[in-house]
Design a protein that fits this description.
- The protein is α/β, with parallel strands linked by helices.
- The chain has one domain: NAD(P)-binding Rossmann-like Domain (Rossmann fold, 3-Layer(aba) Sandwich), CATH 3.40.50.720.
- The protein contains eight helices and seven strands; from the N terminus they run E-H-E-H-E-H-E-H-E-H-E-H-H-H-E.
- Helix 5 links the parallel strand 5 and strand 6.
- Helix 1 crosses helix 8, helix 3 runs parallel beside helix 4 and helix 4 runs parallel beside helix 5.
C-alpha cells in the first residue's frame, strides 16, 4: 500500500510580498503546490491575480506605515511570511543622491521592518519568517551602493527578529540570492549594448558560471517556512552559485 506523504506546507497560512513578479511570484506558486493557503501583497492587484487567481490579494505599499497598519488589522493569523518585495537602483555613493538612498532604504529595509512591526502580533507561535536579502549585502561590488547598504541592514533585521521572537518559537531567516534570471534582469540585459556579453558578465560572478533560477530560490524559502527547518533561525544564507565563498 502506497502512503501519501503530507505536503510540506499543508495547513499553513503564508503571506508573500512582492508576489506579482519574479522570485515572489515563483515562490507563491511553489508554496501553493506544497499545500499552503496564500495571501499575496504588492502594488499591482492585477499582477497578483495573475500569480494565483484563487489566493487572497491585497494592494499594499509595504513602506507606507499607515497602509501596513491598516492591512495588519484585517490580516488573519499567519504561519509564515516571505517578505520578498524590493527594488534595485544602481549607482555609487558619489553618484547616488539622498532621494536614491532613501528610496533604496524604503523599498528594501523600511518596508520589511514595518511588515514585521505591524504583523508580528499576527504570527502564530512557531511561525517562520523569511526575508529576501542579497549576496551583495554580504560583499561589496561596484555600482550598487545604496541597495547593498539597505540589504545589509535587512540581514541584521533578520538576526534581531530571531532573537526577539525566540520566546514564541518564531523563526526568522534571511536568504541572500545572487543574480537570478527574472523578467527584470532580462529587461536590463535587453537594454545593454551587447545583451549576450552582459549576461556572460553576470554569470561569471560565481563559480558555477550561471544565473540562478527563480524556482531555486523558491525551494530554499519553502524549506525555511516548513517544519523541517524548525531549529534554523537567525541565519543569512547565500544562494548565489558559490560567489560568497570566493569573494
Amino acid at each position: 500500500m502506497t502512503r501519501t506523504l503530507p505536503s510540506a506546507l499543508a495547513g499553513k497560512t503564508i503571506l508573500v510580498t512582492g508576489a506579482g513578479s519574479g522570485i515572489g511570484r515563483a515562490s507563491a506558486r511553489r508554496f501553493q503546490e506544497l499545500g499552503a493557503e496564500l495571501l499575496l501583497a504588492g502594488r499591482r492587484l492585477e499582477a497578483l491575480r495573475e500569480t494565483l487567481p484563487r489566493a487572497r490579494h491585497f494592494a499594499l505599499d509595504h513602506a507606507d506605515d499607515a497602509a501596513v497598519a491598516a492591512f495588519a488589522r484585517e490580516c488573519p493569523e499567519l504561519d509564515g511570511m516571505f517578505l520578498c518585495a524590493g527594488e534595485l537602483r544602481t549607482g555609487s555613493v558619489a553618484e547616488s543622491g539622498a532621494a536614491d538612498f532613501e528610496r533604496m532604504i524604503a523599498a528594501n529595509l523600511r518596508g520589511p521592518w514595518l511588515m514585521c512591526h505591524h504583523l508580528g502580533p499576527r504570527l502564530r507561535d512557531g511561525a517562520s519568517v523569511v526575508l529576501a536579502g542579497s549576496n551583495i549585502g554580504i560583499r561589496a561590488i561596484p555600482d550598487s551602493a545604496a541597495y547593498s547598504v539597505a540589504k545589509a541592514g535587512l540581514h541584521m533585521l533578520g538576526q534581531v527578529l530571531a532573537l526577539e521572537w525566540a520566546g514564541r518559537a518564531i523563526r526568522c531567516n534571511t536568504i541572500a540570492p545572487g543574480p537570478v534570471r527574472t523578467a527584470m534582469v532580462d529587461q536590463r540585459l535587453a537594454a545593454a549594448a551587447d545583451p549576450g556579453a552582459a549576461l556572460a558578465a553576470l554569470a561569471r560572478v560565481n563559480p558555477m558560471g550561471r544565473l540562478g533560477r527563480e524556482e531555486e530560490i523558491a525551494a530554499l524559502a519553502a524549506h525555511l517556512l516548513g517544519d523541517e527547518s524548525r531549529w534554523t533561525t537567525g541565519t543569512v544564507i547565500p544562494i548565489d552559485g558559490g560567489a560568497a565563498a570566493v569573494m
